[in-house]
Amino acid sequence: MELALTSIACLVMLCLGVYLWVIRRYAFWRRYNVPFVQPVLPYGNFREMGKSIHPAHLSQRFYEQYKNADGLGFVGLYIFLNPVLMVTNLRLAKRILIEDFQYFPDRGVYFNERDDPLSAHLFALEGRRWRDLRAKLTPTFTSGRMKAAFPLVHAIAEQFCAFLQEQHGSGEIVEVRDLMARFTTDVIGSYAFGLECNSFREPHNEFRRIGRKHFDTPRNHPLKVFIMKTFRGLANALGMKLLHDDVAAFFQGVIEQTIEHRERHGTKRSDFLDLLIRLKNTGTLEGSGEIVGRLSGAEIAAQAFIFFTAGFETSSSAMTYTLYELALNEEIQRRARECVLEALDRHDGVLSYESSKGMLYLDQCIYETLRKYPPVAILERTVAKPYRIPETDILLHRGMKIMIPAYAIHHDPNIYPNPGTYDPDRFTPDRMARRDPCAYLPFGEGPRICIGLRFGMMQARIGLALLLKHFQVLPCEETDVPLSYSPRAFVLTPVNGVRLRLVKYDEPLS
Q: Rounded to two decimals, what is the model's pTM?
């Protein structure tokens, strides 16, 4: 009896201790007199996220409610039990992303290098390891490297357009998101993995199947997500993984086999994987005497994987939404096509690296698409060392999460009047030069800006240029206006896809 009472007393004390700890965690912003959104246990302020509302729209709600709160330029939130600072002021965003970067160098993304080695990629790595790897990889994304990669991307885009002309050019309704995903699958499968996927004619090939499983099939239970976000050390100790085992095994196997084959036969393709293999073997890149350091086989696999993950979804979404907006805006589509044809005429009708760089209005369309549909809705950083917010007494402690709501900033009417209107003229060179750099964040900003943005823009520019050269894009009775989005997807993903009509210019619509 006495033992039972002791056990009950211990349990009560434990529950009381946990309760008081949670109460103290949820009182963090109140202690600093910071405006905050009242949290709900155990989700904090993000109970709806992934269930009924996309993170982009939830962050926009908080941003709009608190962007003028007390003139501070931020609001306090909670992710599960963790206090989070959401930035609502471009000046503070610039400090975090650029000026005071040494205090905020990491994204705080969960990874487990021991049990899930593909998760230890450039996007997730932290501290010195990130800086060293970034220095090694940066030379692989110069304008010269992109020029060398152009023929490979162009060849796949030509195959893609030939397929569309053969199969879908007579006014058929097509699901554009799926078509763009097949295009980017083939481009990145070829450039980063050395695979000829042929996703146009074989949409269910293994590379496409594995890619769809990675993007469309949630792996982790909400409890695991809670542990990975709140107790990263514990999650690592428990061997928690982000990737499906068969997805990881497929990508690792492809990289290992391709490297072995190329090294055995001396095969060279002038692609991303070739550059990584050279770094692995020599620590230098061809044409440069600079020693940037060697890469291990595991590092190559992880970087190729994140290249696929980041480049596949973001580029296909950018192309999809650009075609959607052009279909709904006939005059903008006309101007974009004229821009393409004029650039080609100046280069004897040839789509080359040089002619593509002259398609300025098409670039403006892509920029406006990335404003309206940013690939990453919320930029995240973590505090690396204590930081006092300028002109306040608020001290951010090490490990705290910072959120910069890119989607909300892109839809702020004070920055972009009539933000729901698709207007590529927002991105004329003159207007871009006058705009605060942190008012436009599709690729991030500062030292951790997306390393592959040149490749992503080139891929989208080539694909869209050829599509506009050969096809008129029209809305149809199955086109959703407005679009509705899946709350579970990381990027803005239309629930019903994007259905449009493609018509070849040499054929009238029947």
A: 0.92
